[in-house]
Structures are given as C-alpha cells and as structure tokens.
C-alpha cells in the first residue's frame, strides 16, 4: 500500500503528548503510524495505525519502521516522543537506573533516526522531530539523570541537523514545559534513596506535581509539533507554550547569579 498523503511516525503515541500529536497530525492531513510498547490495550484513534515498538530494542525498531514502509510506502515525518522520567537526587540514582533512562530517551532516539534516515535521504525530504524539554537547557535539581538525557537529545539533534540538511532532511527540537500528563506519576523513583536528600527530594516532588497539574495541555505541545512538521521554513527549536518560551529567554539573558537564584527559588531550595 502507498499513499499520496504525507506519512508521520509518532513514537509513544498511546497517551499524553504522543496521542494528541497523532490526532493533530491526522487533522493536518497526515497518515499516521503511532507506536506503543503494547498497543493491544490502546484505545483506537481515527486515522492512526498502531504498531508495537520498544525503542530500546534494535530488532523492534527495525521491524516497526519496515512495517510503516510496507504499509504506506514512505515516512515523511518522524516524531521521537517516547521517553521515560526519573526523579531523585543524582547520588540516589544507580548507574543501572540512569542507563535505563538514557537507553530510552537518548539511544532510542538514535536507533529510530538510524533506521528512518536512509528512507528520508533516498526520497530527498523528511523531518525528524525530537521531543526534548525545557530541561534540555535548564538544570533541574533532583532530576539530574532525566535532565542530562534531554541535554543529550538537544546536542545530538542540533549536530544531526547540520549533517542532513544537504540531503533535504531536517532534525528539529520541540521543548515542552510542564504538561498535564502522567509524567510525574510514571517517573522512576530513586533506587538508592538516602535520608540526607529526603527533604529536598520531597520538596521538589511537590513542586513538580503542582507544576504538572497547572501545566499546559498536551494539545499545546502537539500544536508545536505540527508546526515543526509543516512550516515551510522550519526553526531548529520550537518552545511549546508560554512558560517554555519564558524559560528559554531566562536562560539566554539572565545573569548567571540571577539565574542560579531563580532555579533555587522555583524549587524551594534553601540558599
């Protein structure tokens, strides 16, 4: 089967940002393949073909991309949305736990890119949209492993974009702020908790929970992703929502001392 409509592949499309992105891309005229770890339990979405995918498995990635190519004939947009969260102080996070975060949030992105990019180069067009976070350019105490993974995604994507432009393909970054999803509830807790960090960790956990409750709807992020997918002249970075935009400005213009104090104030940390 082939289609005359543009084709988008969205990872982590079973809920939250991924689900709203898949629906928004359908509304924008795309045929959409959405993935999840176990799509047998996913509520069907109009216009979205669901496939099982574990982005941390090379074999799973190869099989899923091949299924999309066989069904639709091409892939015009790849949205790397699948990811996992991690809470807790850096010292409380084991290397094994940090490796799990990087395996999904960073290596998973690389695996998807390596599998999809040859098809995009061959057709001389395509967009790779990697979902980062404001924590891709801001520090976040008690989320060091997660913030590190998103900083890695930013550096990887910006470097990749320079490599592939001459082949008609762009790599772009979307940076959400706090979004009303199950992120905080579904994030891994530290596997080596230490009493010395308990007070700070619990404080930041409460701050994060409230920020997510008050955060943007996933549709706000989906709108930014559709813009990245369809803009005639795309930007390298798309901040999703007003808070993300303000955070980007703060990082760029605030003096180092002011910025440092603001991070501690936001997280209700002493000193």
From TrEMBL:
Family the entry assigns: Belongs to the short-chain dehydrogenases/reductases (SDR) family.
Highest taxon, organism lineage: Bacteria
Protein name per Swiss-Prot or TrEMBL: Oxidoreductase
SUPFAM superfamilies assigned to the protein according to its UniProt record, in alphabetical order: NAD(P)-binding Rossmann-fold domains
Coiled coil (UniProt feature): none
Lineage, broadest ranks: Bacteria, Bacillati, Actinomycetota, Actinomycetes, Kitasatosporales
Keyword annotations: Oxidoreductase
Keyword Ribosomal protein: no
Biological source species: Streptomyces plumbiresistens
Pfam families: adh_short (PF00106)
InterPro entries noted in UniProt: NAD(P)-bd_dom_sf, SDR_fam, SDR_oxidoreductase
């Amino acid at each position: 089967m082939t289609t005359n409509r543009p084709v988008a592949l969205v990872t982590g499309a079973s809920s939250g940002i991924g689900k709203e992105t898949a629906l928004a891309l359908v509304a924008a005229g795309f045929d959409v393949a959405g993935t999840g770890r176990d799509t047998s339990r996913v509520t069907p979405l109009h216009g979205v073909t669901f496939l099982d995918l574990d982005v941390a498995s090379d074999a799973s990635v190869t099989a899923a991309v091949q299924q999309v190519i066989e069904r639709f004939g091409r892939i015009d947009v790849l949205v790397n949305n699948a990811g996992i969260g991690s809470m807790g102080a850096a010292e409380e996070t084991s290397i094994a736990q940090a490796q799990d975060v990087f395996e999904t949030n960073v290596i998973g992105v690389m695996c998807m890119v390596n599998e999809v990019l040859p098809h995009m180069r061959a057709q001389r067009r395509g967009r790779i949209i990697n979902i980062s976070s404001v924590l891709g350019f801001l520090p976040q105490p008690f989320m060091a492993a997660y913030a590190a993974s998103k900083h890695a995604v930013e550096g990887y994507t910006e470097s990749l974009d320079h490599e592939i432009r001459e082949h008609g393909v762009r790599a772009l970054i979307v940076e959400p702020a706090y979004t009303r999803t199950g992120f905080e509830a579904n994030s891994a807790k530290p596997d080596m908790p230490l009493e010395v960090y308990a007070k700070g960790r619990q404080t930041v956990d409460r701050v994060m929970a409230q920020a997510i409750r008050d955060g943007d709807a996933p549709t706000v992020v989906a709108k930014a992703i559709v813009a990245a997918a369809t803009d005639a002249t795309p930007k390298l970075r798309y901040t999703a929502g007003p808070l993300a935009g303000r955070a980007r400005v703060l990082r760029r213009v605030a003096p180092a001392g002011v910025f440092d104090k603001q991070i501690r104030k936001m997280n209700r940390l002493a000193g």
